[in-house]
Design goal:
This protein has 253 residues and is an alpha/beta fold. The chain is built from 10 helices and 7 strands. This is tRNA (cytidine/uridine-2'-O-)-methyltransferase TrmJ. It catalyses: cytidine(32) in tRNA + S-adenosyl-L-methionine = 2'-O-methylcytidine(32) in tRNA + S-adenosyl-L-homocysteine + H(+); uridine(32) in tRNA + S-adenosyl-L-methionine = 2'-O-methyluridine(32) in tRNA + S-adenosyl-L-homocysteine + H(+). Homodimer.
C-alpha cells in the first residue's frame, strides 16, 4: 500500500531527466513526497534530474522505479489519469480543483490514491488510461493547451495543497499592527492645525468641513499601519519646521 495518505505521483515513461527533477521540485513545494517512475527513457538514477530538483533530492532518492504502469498502481485503490484529449472511454472527468477535493476526502478515509502523468511527447497511452478510475483534465486556452510535464504536476500539487490550506486570501505579511483610531485622529488633527496655520482654508472657509471629512475618509481607506502614521507625522513635522525656519530667517533680515 501507499506509505502515506497523500496521492502518489506516477510519471509514466518520462523522456527527460530535467522534467523528472522539476516535477520532484513541484511535488515538494506542496508537500507531496512519494514519486513513482515507470520506465524512464534515460534510465535511473539520472544526474540531470538531480540537478533540476533544486534541493528536492529526497523525493528523487525515495523514488520507486517500475517496468509497467500496472505494477506502479498495483497497491493503489483509486487512480486518476491526467489527459488533455477526449478518449473513447466513459470515465468521470474532473478539473484539478475537483480532483483535489476528492483526493483530500479519500486520504481522510484511508484510500490509497495515485495520479498518472504521461510522457512529454504523447501523454498517456489508452492502456494506461484504462487503469485509471477517473480522469483529470486541466481547463486551458483551446488555442494553446499544451503544458509541460512539471507544470502539470505543479497544477495538481497546488490544488491538492490548497484543498486543505487555510491561508487567508488577504493579509499583511509583517508583525505590525493597524493604526488605532486615536492615532489616526491625532494625525488628522495635526494636519488640520498645520493647514490652518498656513491659511489654507481662508479662501474656502465654508468648504473646510467637507474637505476635512473627505481627507479623513481617504486616510481611513488607506488602511494605515502604525509605522505609516509615524511616517506621516514625521513628514508633517518636517514641513512645519521648514516653514518656521523660513519665517525666523525673514525676521532676522
Amino acid at each position: 500500500m501507499s506509505k502515506t495518505n497523500q496521492p502518489v505521483i506516477i510519471l509514466v515513461e518520462p523522456q527527460m531527466g530535467e522534467n523528472i527533477g522539476a516535477s520532484a521540485r513541484a511535488m515538494l513545494n506542496f508537500g507531496l513526497t512519494e514519486l513513482r517512475i515507470v520506465k524512464p527513457r534515460d534510465g535511473w538514477p539520472n544526474e540531470r534530474a538531480v540537478a533540476m530538483a533544486s534541493r528536492a533530492d529526497r523525493v528523487l532518492e525515495n523514488a520507486r522505479i517500475f517496468d509497467t504502469t500496472a505494477e506502479a498502481v498495483a497497491d493503489l485503490q483509486y487512480v486518476y489519469a491526467t489527459t488533455a484529449r477526449q478518449r473513447d472511454v466513459i470515465k468521470k472527468t474532473s478539473t484539478p480543483n475537483g480532483a483535489a477535493t476528492d483526493l483530500r476526502h479519500q486520504s481522510q478515509t484511508g484510500i490509497a490514491t495515485g495520479i498518472l502523468f504521461g510522457k512529454e511527447s504523447v501523454g498517456l497511452s489508452a492502456d494506461d488510461v484504462t487503469l485509471a478510475d477517473s480522469l483529470i483534465s486541466v481547463p486551458l486556452n483551446p488555442e494553446f493547451s499544451s503544458i509541460n510535464l512539471a507544470q502539470a504536476v505543479l497544477l495538481l500539487g497546488y490544488e491538492w495543497f490548497q484543498a486543505a490550506d487555510d491561508t487567508p486570501d488577504h493579509q499583511i505579511l509583517n508583525k505590525e499592527r493597524p493604526a488605532t483610531k486615536a492615532e489616526l485622529s491625532y494625525l488628522f488633527d495635526r494636519i488640520e492645525r498645520e493647514l490652518d496655520a498656513r491659511g489654507f482654508f481662508d479662501p474656502i472657509i465654508n468648504r473646510k468641513p467637507v474637505i476635512l471629512r473627505n481627507m479623513r475618509t481617504m486616510f481611513q481607506r488607506l488602511g494605515l499601519m502604525e509605522s505609516d502614521v509615524r511616517a506621516f507625522q514625521g513628514g508633517v513635522k518636517g514641513l512645519s519646521m521648514k516653514v518656521k525656519d523660513k519665517k525666523n530667517d525673514g525676521n532676522h533680515s
